[in-house]
Amino acid sequence: MENQMIVPDDVRAALSVAGWDMDKEMEDQSTASSGFELPRVRIEHKDNGKHRMYIDTGESYLETDTQEIDIPGNKLTGVVFAEQFIRALWQEGAEVPLCSAIDDMPVGKEPLAETCKRCEHGVIGGACKPKTRLFLLFEINGEVKPLVFALSPTSIKHWNAHKKKLQRSNLPVVAANTTFSLEDVKKGTYRWAEVKIGIDGIASKEMLMLAKQARDQFEEVTRQITERDYSDPGDTSVEPF
To answer: Which of these, 52, 220, 222, 194, lies nearest to 136 by C-alpha position?
Structure first.
């Protein structure tokens, strides 16, 4: 039974005969589950410099599904509809962080400090790892989907520089078709990819409408930090990326 092939069309037909509305059931299931099961942009860092950017869709029970979608040319273009500065302090082997924060305000039950600015672990180079978490819309196979992209500490500076350029251009972040590409960096014994950021024109009216809907829809799930935000290489170690 465990190896039985699952055919979604057969499942839909069986549900319909039994009086179930599959679309409604999937909608309710999506609402009740964690929003952080959204597809994620990830980076595979390689010692030979041939780094890889891909989309992690998560595991499923469908044999025909692949968990990873390659991004052609390691360049992604999307509309960013929300951003957060997150932090997490991890203990080895822990499934949840010892302390975590969103926009410098602790979200855990027992924070180590009132704010990150008053915490000894939050200083530059401290044990608390910072990231910039972006929520964006991206077109996959002709369909616009929301993605999560948690920029590593070494890429945050590129995002901040991008925002300054937009501000000087009198443009909000959501108005731009933002581009993300990889840049090879090598220092000492470490070699990794940093995310370079730019724009490719202005977002369409249709995309802006979808971005507004997405921001409203995912407002609740942006209030949490999970282990999936910190499951990239170097997230809980001394590695720079």
So the answer is: 222
The parts of the chain modelled with pLDDT lower than 70 are 1-7, 26-36, 60-66, 221, 234, 236-238
Residue with tokens 């979608």: 69
Q: Which residue has the tokens 């840049």?
A: 183
Could you tell me the two tokens for 41? Answer: 């942009």
CA distances from 68 to 15, 59, 73 (A): 29, 9, 15
For 107-165, write each residue's pLDDT tens digit: 877 888 888 888 888 887 778 889 999 999 998 878 899 999 999 999 999 999 999 99
| Bridge pairing between strands 99-102 and 68-70 | unpaired
The CA distance from 191 to 202, in Å, is: 34
Cα(199)–Cα(76) distance, integer angstroms: 11
227 vs 67: CA distance, rounded Å = 18
Q: Let me know how long the chain is.
A: 241
> pTM for this structure?
0.80
Tokens representing 92 are 């080895």
- pLDDT of the residue at 138: 94
Cα distance between residue 75 and residue 73, in whole Å? 5
- Judged on CB neighbours under 10 Å (0-12, 13-18, 19+), 88 is buried
Cβ 86 vs Cβ 135: under 8 Å: no
